[in-house]
Amino acid sequence: MEKGGRPGPLFAEGMARAKPRSLIEAISEIQILATVVKTGREIPENYLLLDRRIAYFEVGVKGALADGLISALFVPVSMGVLSNLVPIFGTLSPSLFDQLFSVLIAMAYGLGYNVMIGVNLGNCYYGKACRQAIDSIYSAMVTFNILKVILVFLLFHGLHGLLTPHWVHAKAEQLWPAWRVLMNQATALEVQTWILNVREVLLLSSWFVVFSTAVSLIIPRILFVRGSKQAELEHRRNMLYDGY
């Protein structure tokens, strides 16, 4: 027990500790730990065993993988909207609102996931056990988001290198016997032109993924630092006025 802390067990003996399967469950469990710490009770540094840290790590991995899939699918679409290549709400001339909406769709999951972690766990970033739990989630997110950025960057640049005018034209000629029942030559030429325009969007998309990922990951770190300072001030006030 910490000096001046309140006596008593942290949790009842035999209390079931189900493995957190979602971010909501992980946040709720960490908030309970933080509440215990802020009342002056000590949670041992080794309270979080390996299986628990891995469970938190898995929560972060799931979020990063989902974000990677969404980024690979929707970022090129969003950049296509900004470049007037992909229609949104039935038009190729999007308004400012349409453009912002397309960017929001591309960033929504990753940004929302990280903001949710930062807002809900910022004030919990206090005490060794709580920090270990939060760092397990955040380190997984950082690690796999870096991998996501590398893979998406290589994928988009690889497609940009593949979709050369010569390659697109050659493939169009090979597929023309099958396409001719669906479109005329003028439409087929428009399709080739559209593919070559999308090729240029891929480079912009790769850099947008880098930028959006960096912004998303910085937000929770800032909130952790801010929340940690607030929790420390709260602890000092409790020690001064309440003795814990």
TrEMBL record:
It comes from the Bacteria. The chain crosses the membrane at residues 69-89, 101-125, 137-159, 201-224. Keywords: Membrane, Transmembrane, Transmembrane helix. This is Uncharacterized protein. It comes from Nitrospira defluvii.
